[in-house]
Every structure is written in C-alpha cells, then in structure tokens.
Write a structure and sequence with these properties.
- By secondary structure, the chain is α/β, with parallel strands linked by helices.
- It has 2 domains: about 1-50 and about 155-195, Urease, subunit C, domain 1 (Roll), CATH 2.30.40.10; about 50-135, no CATH class.
- The chain is built from 7 helices and 12 strands.
- Strands 3-2-1-4 form a 4-stranded mixed sheet, covered by helices on one side. Strands 5-10-11-12 form a 4-stranded antiparallel sheet, with no helix packed on it. Strands 8-7-6-9 form a 4-stranded mixed sheet, with no helix packed on it.
- A hairpin with a 2-residue loop joins strand 2 and strand 3.
- It is elongated.
Length: about 200
C-alpha cells in the first residue's frame, strides 16, 4: 500500500512510501495528483531525512533507561556514570531492556542513525530490530552525550528509490529545529514503518 507523508510547513518535501522504499519525493500536490489512491498521513511542521546521533555507545551501553515501573525508585530520566554501571553490575539482564528503551528515546528525537562502535549484544539487537543505521562518528563530537546534540546532524536529502527513512519535527523550518532541538519530533519512520508517533 502506498502512503504519502506530508508535513504542513514543508509541502514541497512530501514523500511517497512503497514498502521499505521511497517511490517518489516532491511537492504534495504533484504526488497526490499522480497517486490519488495513496493513503495520506498529514503531520505538523517539517519532514526531514532524520538525524544522526553520534553517541550510540554512550546512550545505549553506558546509560540506564529506567523502566516506567521503576519510576518511584529511579525516576524517569536516563541515568549515567557510576550509578548506571552499578545498576548494570548488580543485574546484567538490565542492559538489553535498557538499550531497547534507549532506542525508543532516540526514535522520539527523530534519530534514524547512530554512530560509534556498539559492543553489547543487547544494544546491538535493539538497534538492529529498530532498523537504525550505524555509521562512523564525525571527526569532532558536538558536546556531551545527548538525545538532542548541538549541533544537530541531518542525514543527506531523501531520494526516490532510497530507503523510507525520515523524521518529522513540529517546527516551522530548519532554523527553528536547530533552535528548539530534536525534542520537537512528532514522527520517525524507518524501513517504511512508523516507529515513533507523538501522542
């Protein structure tokens, strides 16, 4: 089934998804006229190629992402440093579940690719299942590990025939995305699958 994704502030960058690939990229009016049978998903903001987060190992292997059922004990925010290491040492089984929750946080920030060498099986499995790309780190890192690193690193432009991998941010333009950060994400698509949608 064809699905046409369009964001209100970037109608010139609509994408037509066919399975795991982009059948077409272009203006919404042209794509909907050429494919009237396509299901349409409308989003606020802008549609982009998605983000590369260069901190894969730091966020997925060295940070503990508490289970919501642990909120009374550990809170809801990621835990790093010696406290995370102590939690992993006390119960190694936490690693895989934490990595899966970490991947969900990445998706909620429009991340479609990570960088850095992953060594833990739980993190590798979580990344593979989601379909996140794994690439080389940039020559210089933008600062401390974050789900919304500064500066944001956008992937190359979307092209017809390429993978259906993109994110939508509820901002009026890219300058606002840079100012407001990746927490403005409303949707993340990998392999044609809508893996994150803001409530």
């Amino acid at each position: 089934m064809l699905t046409l994704h369009v964001a209100e502030a970037s109608p010139e960058a609509a994408v037509l998804v066919d399975g795991a690939h982009l059948a077409a990229v272009g203006r919404y009016e042209e794509l909907t006229a050429a494919h009237p049978q396509a299901r349409v998903r409308r989003w606020p903001g802008i549609l982009t190629p998605g983000l590369l987060n260069p901190y894969g190992p730091e966020l997925l292997e060295r940070t503990y992402h508490p289970d919501p059922r642990e909120a009374d004990t550990y809170g809801t925010r990621p835990i790093g440093g010696p406290r995370a290491e102590a939690l992993f040492r006390a119960d190694p089984a936490r690693r895989g579940a934490s990595a899966r929750r970490g991947v969900q946080r990445l998706l909620a920030h429009g991340t479609v690719a990570i960088a850095g060498e992953l060594r833990e099986r739980g993190a590798l499995d979580a990344v593979r299942r989601a379909g996140l790309l794994v690439g080389q780190r940039p020559p210089s890192l933008p600062g401390p590990p974050s789900f919304s690193p500064v500066p944001l690193i956008l992937l190359p432009p979307l092209l017809p025939g390429g993978p259906a991998r993109f994110a939508v941010f509820d901002v009026p333009d890219r300058a606002a995305l840079v100012r407001e950060g990746a927490g403005t994400c409303v949707a993340t698509v990998l392999g044609g699958r809508l893996l994150y949608r803001a409530r």
